Amino acid sequence: MAKVILEPLGDSRETFLPGEAWDNQLKGNLKLNHALREKRAAVRAGWGPKYEARVREKGKLPTWDRIERLKDDDSPILPVGTLVNHGRTFGKDERTSPGAGVVTAFIRIHGRWTVLIANDNTVASGSWWPLTPEKIQRAQEVALKLRLPVVYLVDCSGLYLPEQSHTFPGRTGAGAIFRMNSELSAAGVPQIAGVHGDCIAGGGYMPLISDVVYMTEQAYMVIAGAALVKGAKSSPITSLTLGGPDVHVHLSRCADYRVPGDEELLDRIRDELKRLPTPACDYYRYGAEAAPPAYAPEELNGMFPTDHRIAYDVKQVLARILDHSLFQEFAPNVGREMVCGIGRIGGLYAGIVANNTALTDHPNHRNRKRPGGILYREGIAKISQFSRACNDDGIPLIWLQDISGFDIGPEAEQQGLLGYGSSLIYTNSTNTVPMFTVLLRKASGAGYYAMAGHPYKPVLQLATPFTRLAVMEGRTLAIGAFNTKLDDDFKIMAQDEKEQAKIQAGMDAVESRITADMDPVKAASQMDVDEVIEAGELRLYLEAAMEMSYQSIGYRRIKNPRIWSIHDLAVLEGE
Fold this sequence. Notes:
By secondary structure, this protein is α/β, with parallel strands linked by helices. The protein has 22 helices and 20 strands.
């Protein structure tokens, strides 16, 4: 009978990272963490105390207070999409839309992980801005992929009309939210909606396909607001008389229940979630219990060199993610530039694929080393097989990227690296098992794609404050852009000093722009990553990801460990 034999890995931090190096790395990365926390705080504040006071004056709770009351006391709030629209302003008055005016997050309610979608009622009365529909749909996609219950806290005055051309007409415009409502319903995913206040136009459609709809006494749902109806129908009317609970709970039946206010509504939503089946996580732990790593996950904040060219031991990173710091490595003697294997996170099995950034021995040439963080033939073949096996066995996959791209040159082409890479891309394109991608540092070139980058639809893609996401480094791209102006040693060829200065200025400008584009905050702002997290938060997010992957049953294959395909591959590898 095949068994999963997990072995210890990792060492105490003092063993492999001396004090001065640790202090320097920690100091640099904590500075980045501090800047990230400030940006998060700004999003959470919405449009500030003045607008929060307005909400309270209406007898309503601000959105974040609603979330705190809704979640279990011991549940973290794990936001996704926090930095969407960060740095963008709209219109002549340069309006901001913190978090695109909507909170999307994972919270536990009566022990069940739930996808929360809540309009921020301190930002233009919960209006939908550019990228708000896409952010809502992204959260719905996660819920559909993992069959997680969805809770909508609706307090939405519809589209932010001055920017309607960016939110109304496209394939991912506001109407796609309702399509996702329908797809979730068709897949049997529970949806529960609470209507707290304004619910106009698109905001009125969003809760209706939910299984249960609650309304407070001051909530209303309307296709068009009272002001528009007055203008079109010449009829004196208020929003509450037009579409309040008197109408929609008792006449139209578009809502199910009415409650006095926010607190009661949130308590009733909690009661609804309690009726759902309990999570299957304990069943799939196969007798094990969740356990912390042997080494503190917070140490990851100082584990990564601030200079992206300096290598580190990725197994020490795994030792601060996996339960008890135990791991079963797959094919450790093949393709050593890649590390992959099985471990537990929160007591649940996970497959791990990670780049090894250190120098490794060349398999065909003695006394030659190859740089890490690059995909070579042997490593590609290994992780392709591993990815297919995890998909066959139902083991969720975590991709830890620190990659510069594929190998290049005569040897790579003669070995058919394009074909091996295509095999990996095909595998990750057709996998149905939940996959989660973490961009630790570099995420460059086609290697970013091949290792389940965002275009390959991982359930989530996370970045760190020191992630660098781009096709290549700024300096390298500048050399490529000005290649015709450079000699074989990449030195500028010019007729005179004036021309040389002009070429140099152009190269510097390209390098500067590309380096700025690599900023993870910018990537998060335009939804190229789902969330930027501190390295020390990685274990927290991955533990939640594994629990969410195993919470619901009956919608995907999950083999028991005795019959895993991975065991067969290990035998064939001679392990």
